[in-house]
Amino acid sequence: MLHLRVVSPADRTEDVVALLREHRGATHLVLFRGAALDPAGDVVEADVAREAADEVLSRLCELGVDRDGGVTLEQIDTALSDAADLAEERAPGEGADAVVWEELVARTGEESRLNATFLAFLTIACLLAAVGVVTDSPVTIVGAMVVGPEFGPLAALAVGLVRRRWDLVRRAALALAVGFPVAVLVTAAGTWVGGLTGLFDASVIAGDGHQVDFVYEVGPWSLVVAVLAGAAGMLSMTSAKSAALVGVFISVTTVPAAGYIGVAAVLGDWGRVLGSAGQLAVNLVGIVVAAAAVLLLRHGPGRHVRRPLPRG
Hints:
Low-confidence stretches: 302-308
Mean pLDDT: 87
Radius of gyration: 23 Å
Order of helices and strands: EHEEHHEHHHHHHHHHH
Strand content: 5-15%
Number of strands: 4
Number of domains: 2
Structural class: alpha+beta
Number of helices: 13
Strand order of the largest sheet: 2-3-1-4
Largest sheet: 4 strands, antiparallel
Helix content: 55-70%
């Protein structure tokens, strides 16, 4: 179940109440007259079955309460109520299969912002990957995979393409287009400093037989893994089963490939630079295509198209 709160202009409150009262997936309806101060209006609350939330949100947006008031959703972990059980039974479909589009757009939009936090996590992840490369440590590579924040913008790209939310596509593309070059440059600088201080030299990546060579060895299986990871990641996001995202993070080699680019470039191994760049490109494209395909196969492009995301 999801908890819905609507700040409604007084002249639309009766329509909001009628909508929630009549919808078979809504229950626990509460009305507070004149409770909202900014924006002014009434507050209407209800609990909504997840599989009914997308339809309810679309109809609320048709009433314009998202523009002149406000709509918020919160996850309910536990609901002890026969009325809630009945609402979930009456709502069409299964909650785990439901895509709440506005929730998905808001979540991916937030995770795709180009800000200091995103850049810091991506840079740290690439630096960890670089340490894993020069020490030939798969464990450190896996740690870099988990730290990397790149799945947020990749998911946002998929959602934006399916929903035709070009503002979301631009935001996610900017985060990736700026974030990876910055992280690679910082990693290259760290590699140069490490070589200058004698921590390692070019011999650390020379030859074959290293445990981390899979990072730059791009091939058909790279695409297969990226597609499966992208599909699993989007299924996790749309079904609110976030635990599966950890498996996604440690399946793809986006961050390790970016980290290897920085190391190999400084040490002059341009073959491995190209191989790592290919690995990075295959993973990015495979994840986005698979995630978009999952959205299309599950529920199509959705009902309601909201106005552009706020700047920031």
